[in-house]
Amino acid sequence: MLTLLAIIFSTFLITLCVWAGALVILLKKDILQKIIKFLVALSAGVLMGGAFLHLLPEAAEKINTNILFVIFLIAFASFFLIEKLLFWRHCHEDDCSVHTFGYMNLVGDSIHNFIDGLVIAGAFLVNWHLGFATTLAIAIHEIPQEIGDFGVLIHAGFEYKTALIVNYLVALTVVLGGVVGYFFLSFSSNILPYILPVAAGGFVYIAASDLIPEIRREQNKKKSIIAYLIFILGIVFMFIVKAFSH
User: Fold this and answer.
1) What is the pTM of this model?
2) How confident is the model at residue 246 (pLDDT cuts 50, 70, 90)?
């Protein structure tokens, strides 16, 4: 029961990242553009650190490493396919041509959030330290993503308040995913270790295909160096979390 409450609490915290979308209106556009690349860099580092320092090592203790990396590669390829099928592009600018329709963005985001909830539930069922580390990695990634998604809804014609409310309702699917994941994985504990490399594949795919290319677009040399250092900081941060959790 305590594990379920921890999952609900953690997934609920994830939903609060939606309110970061308000920065699109509250901050001046030039300020937003200055900080968003650094948030993306931090997010990329945290996701890579979460995958390689937390999820994969934990999975390696429970399943054969050959099977682990096959699952990891299949997950990576699957996220690529899903992104293409559902237009999962986590744009980090207001002007994003990939999101043709605001509603398509909401559908894709709902599925994405639901899977995040499943991943968080699976991590908590392995152990609480892994659960909190996974929640942290997802939360930090959600902030720049939600800013981008909010911008997409505004660009698609949603009113400010409507976009904020609809985006938050969609975010609540992460809580649903967490609850469903808890009950499903509790009764199917044999598949629990296999959820970890799937999550790791997703983390690495998002960081490598979506976030890092955003950082590489920066033309200013000084900003590029700072973004890279923040990326490394994200990895180091997850290493510190791992060190203090043992």
Assistant:
1) 0.77
2) low
